[in-house]
Amino acid sequence: MPRKKRQEEPDDHNRWIVSYADFITLLFALFAVMYAMSSLNLEKYAAMSASMTTAFSKFPQPLKAASSSINTDASEFKIFPNPNSLALWDWGLYNSSDLWWADALSSQPAKPPAELIGDTVQNADQPESAASDQTSATMPPPETIALIEENQKKAMENQEIQRITEEMTKIANDIKMVLGPMIRLGNVTVTQSGQSVSIEINASILFDPGKAKLNADSTHTLGAIAHVLSGGNNKIRVEGYTDNMSVNNSLFPSNWELSAHRAATVAHLFTENGIVDERITAIGHGKNNPAESNDTPEGRAHNRRVIVSILASKGSND
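Above: the chain sequence. Below: its structure as tokens.
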């Protein structure tokens, strides 16, 4: 029995679609790669362009000026060289709507619209001296700068003087408040100057004649002063004075030792009432620098004194 002949399948006329699809896929990949290569980082290009311009041009161009001068808002930029010139500034970033790139492809030489020089924009046809005049015009003359600096210095000095005056006035008022009764009796005098406040205390209310030990009542007076001064950082100078009467005993060979010991005694009481010893200096003047004549008992009594000086604190700019 003869074998049945297999029926042949009809030819498929749509196989071209597979080849076409492969071709379209490859073409899409090609354009995707080309698009990726054509994208430009404007910031990096600006840095590179400014660096090359600085190296080859006699007008140095800071990177910051070049970067800030590029119009980053433009949606599309292209780079085209001028084939008729080898100068670096014949390369540039221009919008695709510019006609300079078309001129570059033609036989006619083209010039970029402008050049960046320093912090100013100069047209290519503008003389170099004009660009220099524009740059110098942005800076004030040296006389103006010196005047501004002098005015600033005076303003800072006036502020410091005002601060010191307010500080010394507050300290003086606080001292007068706590020592009001003794001030009215004439045993204490408070004087304010530009840089300090002086508290002059009659030694008779602090010490017995020829001695450097504080009386019982004097500790209250000095403690009140220490309470006012303990909260600040002002330097304190304690100075002891005597009259011209000779002192010659086993404790104090002269008025120098007596006055110095009295000043040190007051300084010790201050430290015991909260004032750090780094702020205090004790000085003994003896019979030197009398306030009045030593010819009368009243004058000698006035010369026996202790002066506590509170100095102005240093400002933040010192």
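The radius of gyration is 46 Å.
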